[in-house]
Amino acid sequence: MLSILCCDKISFSHKPQDGCCFKLQKLRIDRQALLSVEPLRGLRHTKELQIGDDYAMDSLPEEWLLQNAASLHSIEMGVAEALRSLPSVMEKLGSLQSLHIERAPLIQSLPQLPASLFKLVIWGCNTTFLKRYESGGEDWGKIAHIAAVDIKAYSEGTYYGDDQSQDFINSNSSHQFVVID
């Protein structure tokens, strides 16, 4: 595992050779922008990506995702408060099994997701997003193939620690939709 945290002005003194072949089990960063800095930009064999507490993250870099498409099986994003959508290349991540996004109140939609995706967790989205993706919602078809879906929406002004909730549960018990008021 490689963790790079609290390094907003990181730079590297040399440029790695083309086709960087580092094989990482897990890359843990707190700024999505680090994926655009060498040598992280050149990674091609990363299995797990964790981006934590990046309040400015509004997207994921498509080129980096495609470079790691054959090996990337897990993406976790925490505190993605500026995230509005995921890139359309998500469908091309043929090894992706788990996608977990937290505190993404601005997220509006999801692109087509890969058939390999087994688990989708989105906590802290808005209620409009939740209603679009719950069973019978206008975009349910985009996630119906995913075995385990857990989407929780927080009403505006709600604290994340509140425990009042209204559950929307699909007949398939592995799909859970919750609004926390």
UniProtKB/TrEMBL annotation:
InterPro entries: LRR_dom_sf. It comes from the Eukaryota. SUPFAM superfamilies: L domain-like. PANTHER family: DISEASE RESISTANCE PROTEIN RGA3, PLANT BROAD-SPECTRUM MILDEW RESISTANCE PROTEIN RPW8. This is Uncharacterized protein. The lineage of its organism: Eukaryota, Viridiplantae, Streptophyta, Embryophyta, Tracheophyta.
